[in-house]
Amino acid sequence: MFGKGFPFVNAAGGFYPRDEARRTPGYTTKVRVRDNYHIVGFISSGTYGRVYKAIGKNGKQGEFAIKKFKPDKEGESIQYTGLSQSAIREMSLCTELSHANVVQLEEIILEDKCIFMVFEYTEHDLLQIIHHHTQPQRHAIPAGMVRSILFQLLNGLLYLHTNWVLHRDLKPANILVTSSGAIRIGDLGLARLFYKPLNSLFSGDKVVVTIWYRAPELLLGSRHYTPAVDMWAVGCIFAELLSLRPIFKGEEAKMDSKKTVPFQRNQMMKIVEILGLPRKEHWPGLVSMPEYTQLQSMVLHRQPPHFHRGSNLEGWYQSCLKNGGYSSNSSAGTPGADGFDLLSRMLEYDPTKRITAQEALEHPYFTNGGPISGNCFDGIESKYPHRRVTQDDNDIRTGSLPGTKRSGLPDDSLLRASKRLKE
Amino acid sequence: MAANYWASTQRRYWLFSREKLAEVRERLRDRDKVTHSQFPLPDQRLLNVYFNQQLIKLGKRMSTRQQAIATAQVYLKRFYTKNEIRQTNPYLVLTTAFYLACKMEECPQHIRFVVGEARGLWPEFITPDVAKLGECEFALISEMSSQLIVHHPYRTLSELQPELPLSSDEVALAWSVINDHYLTDLPLLHPPHIIAIMAIIVAVVFKPSHPGGFPGSAQTALAGAMRDGSGMNMLAAALGDNSGAGPPRIHKLVQWLAESEVDIKAVIECTQELLSLYEVWEQYSEKHCKELIGRMVKSKNLDK
Q1: DSSP B2-18
Q2: A Gene Ontology CC term for this entry (chain A) (predicted)?
Q3: Which residues of chain A does B109 touch, with a Cβ-Cβ cutoff of 8 Å?
């Protein structure tokens, strides 16, 4: 379907034949996407736009994932409306970053009023791998593979954190895996530099991180983002790799019409059900959290027995190992007691006590138990399905892509500017 | 890398030798010699003073910070190493640099608001169509190869303050010197820590005598002191030998410099560059810059 003469998608997401390519006076790109890449098909649409699979041409070797940022407003004719701050952040950060466990940017092309970020192609991601292990019936991800994934993920995260980059949206779908088993942290659309930001990190965008992976201090309205928010997400991912289900699968409370950010009561409940209530004796900063009263009201209104228990993470972990068939005499091996200790340090309520990426990499879970492969598929027999690349041209032609805005995350530049205009 | 200057794109792609920078500009000039002779422009540094004033005006009614203005100035410099100024509408380019820098420095402004403010200031040169600015943003980002993260000397200054330590007056003066260095080519010629150290030395050696003058600048405070020579001699002497001559405050600083293995030669060069900026600044006329740029933009229809 996307044969040799495939006309490249134009700004509206529709087609135009090659020779009719409009050239606006003013800005014209020096490199055109179609000069370097042959589009093979469509991979996914996200909050920012869409991702296509491509192969290099005219001397460019290899497979690529091209992320096309859609213009802010889509209508009859596309106009330049200014790039979103999150696109600017992702472009500028990806241009600087270079690490074996962070997705590698090939180039950025600005063409036809759209941005095309060309990344290396990755065949898998953790969401897809976890899903594969639930089909046709649940079979646990081998312990050695979990260990390799986690080590590489932490290694990439340490690189980001030492360079003052917060990812802020770690979740299985954003952890990419190459066909040779290398982990690459992807989607830096929400990433930010946290070195003395001009504005408090809070003021930019109020809702960050997919709710299931959101750290308790964020749920409680913290204004101070620290690398600890990413470490909480890694803890959630670790738990999910072992149990094949999100550990804290809450329901998101939507923003109301006044655009005030609601307290995520249900999500907080899910955490409390496993970890018990956070206590100020253990987490001194708790009482100064903006949503502390909400937390207290949770206790007053409903008092299920588990509220007053301590943490039950160990019970959760043991039954998870049991259900997954992880044991020291199974072929899959077991993350064992070291795994539990590491998990409990990642899922630590107090962000100031939560383990850092550096400390986690030096944890006995990694230092005991032999070498860690840089290929997470090492010794794994099962083959994982390839990424689905659809060739549904209806999708590609559609001018407006419903549901592709970051929900709950209004474009921060717009939000803040409109606020300021009112002031 | 993002927060590591040594691995940054700034160091790898946007640090020029003096010769290289001259060559780059020469090549731009050679491409269109006719326009060049037809539309003479003031000294680059005077143009920079003019642009800086315009950026400050533009930012006035928005809550922008000095760092966003500084980033915008660096964007302008980078852009004009790739494009001949006489082929552009500088008012549009500087408005766009400002708009982009605000997003990068986490104090974003709505495009309509920026265009509205710019139109209020330069109605003849900015059209109400926001798409113009959006398009110029593409050009800017593309010419800078999306390398938008800028490392500034302000950070080094605040890191060194407790270490040296510096008084709040000294920090304030050093801060103004850093503001001023954006009016020169120094941001393209030296890494930010060299600039910060130069600013600290200048602030410690030449105590400010008359504050005021150009807002945020050290020009009025320093120009006289630096020109009268005694300070410069003291500086040269202090930097040239660390035998312990000169006032103890300066001696201590020089000792620290020697221990930290800073490129003293580069620091001296930066000081001279600053001094020569303050000299040329005396010829500055806002009106003159405005007229020359206006004539150029209008007769070449660059505002369309």
Answers
A1: -S-GGGSHHHHHS---H
A2: mediator complex
A3: 413, 417, 420
Quick one: tokens of A53?
């699979």
Assigned CATH class of B5-150+284-299: mainly alpha
CATH number attached to the domain at B154-281: 1.10.472
B154-281 matches B5-150+284-299 in CATH topology: yes
For chain B, the domains span 5-150+284-299, 154-281
Are A185 and A103 contacting, i.e. CB atoms less than 8 angstroms apart? yes
Query: Is A395's pLDDT higher than 50?
Result: no
- Long-range (24+ apart) CB contacts under 8 A made by B239-246 are B239/B201, B239/B264, B239/B267, B239/B268
* A187 labelled catalytic: no
**Alpha carbon distances (Å) from A198 to A105, A125, A371, B30, B156:** 27, 34, 43, 41, 16
Structure tokens at A379: 């010794």
The mean per-residue pLDDT over the stretch A339-346 comes to 97
Instruction: Please list the ranges in chain B whose pLDDT falls under 70.
Output: 1-3, 207-215, 221, 224-225, 227-246
Give A297-322 pLDDT, tens digit per residue: 887 666 666 566 678 999 999 999 99
8 A C-beta contact, residue A73 and residue A85: no
Task: Closest CB to B2: pick one of A29, A97, A413.
Answer: A97
Kindly write down the DSSP assignment for every residue of B109-128, as one continuous string: --HHHHHHHHHHH-TTT--S
Task: Note the ipTM here.
Answer: 0.88
Chain segment B45-77, per-residue pLDDT in tens: 999 999 999 999 999 878 788 899 999 999 999
Contacts of B63 in chain A (CB under 8 A): 420
* Alpha helix (H) residue ranges in B32-89: 33-38, 44-59, 66-82
Judged by CB atoms closer than 8 Å, whether chains meet at A24 and B148 is answered as: no
